[in-house]
Amino acid sequence: MHKLKHMAVVLLGSEGCENGWIQPYLKKHGGFIDLLFLVYDSPWVDEVDVFQWPLGVATYRNFPIMDLNNLMLHSSRPYLCNFLGTVYKGSSRETLLDVLKQEKLGAMCLISVREQWLPQETNDSLKKYQDALLQSDLTLCPVGINTECYRIYEACACGSVPVIEDVMTPGQCGNSSVFQNAPLRLLKSMGAPFIFVTDWGELPAILEKEKAMTLQEKNQRRRIVIEWFKQFRTQLKKKFTDILENKFF
Known about the structure:
Distance between the termini: 19 Å
Oligomer: single chain
Radius of gyration: 19 Å
């Protein structure tokens, strides 16, 4: 390590933002790491030597690079929304399912749940998940251990608008009353064209509005989401290289 002139680290941080183990290695704390790009919201982010980095799609589960053809972009999708995922006991995901059942919204949305999280996808489960994103106008994104999840970015890649539960989760990721736009500060600062909710009781009104939209309106919104996601990745790539060049060269 003593031969290194500079070091930058991209860290897939703890979902609870419990990343204290790396702090002594940061240069400002006497270590050798000049720059830290950190996944998940964190009060450490200062845009000087600690930057937020997006979670992105789950490449470890072989989520592919999507190449949407015109049919996927401009055809009517059979479902207003989808949620395929794990439902933890006592979580807001149970509340989401209750709202869907009470309001009899199940027929409008593709819902498939399980009680235990599985780290790997089978070919069949991956295809089922991708098809759900491609066949839905909206993708419901309840919080898990963290507010940010792969589902947000995977929905974007498929032209399905994320409906995100915009609440802070337990841990050390910050405080929404202290940090402006927390959680998901990076997405909000870059103008993500998503739907944010603080309570799943808002969902029935959202779906009623969806039913009133024309196919042309939905297609236009779909193009906006896909183009935003493209620009989001391009801008972050440029920001990353600019930071490295300014700091190291």
